[in-house]
Structure formats: structure tokens, C-alpha cells
Amino acid sequence: MSFAFAICLAVLFGVAALGTPIGYSMLVASIAYLAASGADLSLAAEQLIQNIYTGYILLAVPLFIVAANIMNAGAISDRLLEFCIALVGRFRGGMGYVNIAVSLIFAGMSGSAVADAAGPGKMIIGMMTKGGRYSRGFAAGITAASATIGPIVPPSIPMVMYALISDQSIGYLFLAGVVPGLLMALVLAVMNYVLAKRGELVREEPVPLRELPRLTLRAIPVLFMPVILLGGIYGGATTPTEAAAIAALYALVLAMVFYRQLSLHGLGQVFSESARQAATVGIVIGSALIFNYIVAAERIPDALAGFLAGINLGPVGFMVLVNILLLLLGTLLDGGTIILVVLPLFIPAARALGIDLIHFGVVAVVNTMIGLVTPPYGMLIFVINAVTGIAIKDIIRGVLPFLAALLMALVVLAAFPDLILFLPRLLGYQG
Known about the structure:
Helices cover 78% and strands 0% of the residues. The chain has helices at 3-17, 22-37, 42-54, 60-73, 76-88, 94-110, 113-118, 120-129, 136-147, 157-166, 170-176, 178-199, 212-234, 240-258, 264-297, 300-310, 315-330, 335-352, 357-371, 379-388, 392-415, 417-426.
């Protein structure tokens, strides 16, 4: 490690310790590296512009953000919630199952854990805690845990980020996320069942079966969005970026024309909020691209791959080591930062060890999403605290059992690659 890179790391951790957002911290650290190494400072801007300009795939990120915000503002998620209550709300602890089902279906539209937690998640927490039927901690905990499904089931913003750094197919990555997302929903439902039996949670008033066709009909336009997205991508009609644009347009038509619950003023607010969120993500992505250039220039991935080869660490040991490291980093860092900055260090070693990069990427993304509900950082913990006012200590207490369930799912996915690669191989993946 050169002196300039040591300065870079010192500045990065020092500026981040002051509370500076990680995107700005990486940007300042990168400029410090260029100054210390005697390089032209304009190199930072050059790398940023070149990578963003050639990163057509990155356009999918703001488009998925717009689609999610339109669905929340246009009350589209309300109809989805009514459908899920009618479907699974009749069982003991039924609102817990509703929570998981909404996250699973909403995941096929937004690709964002934060959008899930702040939108339909906030509504479900209000319904669960009304009249003291469920404790505030339990409602917040299961909402935070189920929101982690969003970035796994396609479309997925973190999968787009991983495709950018690994040069893997977004289509195959999206397909590979389906089974893991279903598995995560299953283990959360099992934990909800265990807690419902142990705590004798309330049984919801069942919606009459004769109402189910009407509620299903109301929800069909919403449920049709994942079909449009995935059908367009895997049918070869659209690229993932074009599919994201179609998703945003479809959500807009539903909210403003079909349901008529989003005004022009509301649309302006949606665009303003989406621009702010997209800019926040863009700063992290842009600064990470500059930082990755520095890491590559220092040949750190090659050195790491050589070190792992020197200690004769096999594929199993490598996966265990990387997952433990990512879980530890997830307690402190944002998932996007881990994907864009940390994972590129391990991709050459994974390739050298013969580990399938689709499997490696999906496991890593699942790991980083678990980090969203892992104390003390846990972004979703803070998001739910901000939108509901529930105390952080109560949220943490409520999320811990579901965190344990998600960790079990992570172990299964890391140990059995065929679970992840099954669907991609059905559609021609040769890995």
C-alpha cells in the first residue's frame, strides 16, 4: 500500500467519522489521494464523467425510484394492501403475513427497501398498532425485516449496482433473485408463525370470501406491473433500463388516469423527492467509481487475490470469510457503499476460485440487505423511526427474531448455489 493510499484511507475514515455522508467522504478521500500522489486533480472529474456517461445501465436507478414514489403517492399500494389482507389476513398474526406479502409483491415494482418501508410499510404499522393489537416494536421489526426482500426480488437497484461492477447480465441477476426473495419471505413467515403461537397474537376479522374477487379485480392493474417488467426484459422486448422507464410510465398512468389519485401538484412533489433521492444515490455511485479507479490503480484486488491463493483458501472458506466480513461491515456501512467499494475487491478472487459470479453477487446483495436491519447502523431501523416515531430500541428488539431468520436464509443460499442459479439456467445461463 502506497503512502498516497494510506492518506486516502485516513481522510476517508476521518471525514466519515465527523458525520459526513459516505459519498462525500469518498469524494474528498479520492481528491486527497490524487493530490498526495501528484496526479492531476481533474482526473477525479474525468473518471466520474466517463463512467457515468458509459454507464447506461445506471439510468434504471432513478427510474425505479420515480416508479416507487408514484406508487406511494398515488395510493396504488393501498389497493395492494387490501388484496393482501383479504388473502392472508384471516390467520392468527395475520397482519404479519400481510406485511410480508405486501413487501414481496411491492418488491416486484420498486426494487427499493426504503420505498417499501416508508410507503406501504408505514401504513401497515399504523394498522397493526391501532387499538394496541400488536406491539409497536413487533410491527416495526417485521416491517423492517420484510422490506429487505425488496432489493432481492426483481427489479433490484442493488443488483443493477452489482452488474455495473461485475459486468454480469442484469437479466440473469434479476432472475437469480426470485428464489432467494421467496425463501426470505418464507423464513419470515415461519418466524411470524412461531411468535404468533408463542405470544397468542390477535386473529384478524376475516374478509368474506365473496369480497375476494372484487378486491382481486381492484388489485390486478397493480399486480400486472411485475409481469410487464419481467416479460419485457426476458422476452427480449426491452432492456432493464427501458423496462424501468416503462414501469415509471405505467405507475404514472395508473395513479393519474386509472385511479385518479395523483394531482399535478402531487406529481411535482414526487419528481422533486425522486430527484433528491436519485441525487443521493448518484453521489455515492459517482464517488465510488472514482474510488474504485484508485483501488484498481493500487492493484489491491490482485494483491488480495494473491493473498487468498497463498493461504490456500478454497471456495467454501472464501464464501464463509467474505460473508462474515460483509455482515460486520453491514453494521456500519450502507449497502450501496459495500456493493460499490468492497465487493470489487473480492470479485477477482471469486473468479479465480471458480465461484459463479451470479451466485456470489446475489449472496452478497442478500448479505448487504440484512445489514439494513442490523444494529447499530441499520438504515431501515432509522427510516422506520423517522416515519413512525417508534423508539429505536423498540424497533431493534422487534427486529432481532426476524434478523435471525434472515441469517438462516443467507446460510442456505450461500451453501446451495443451485437455489440461486436454477431459474437463470432455465433461460439459458451457462455459468
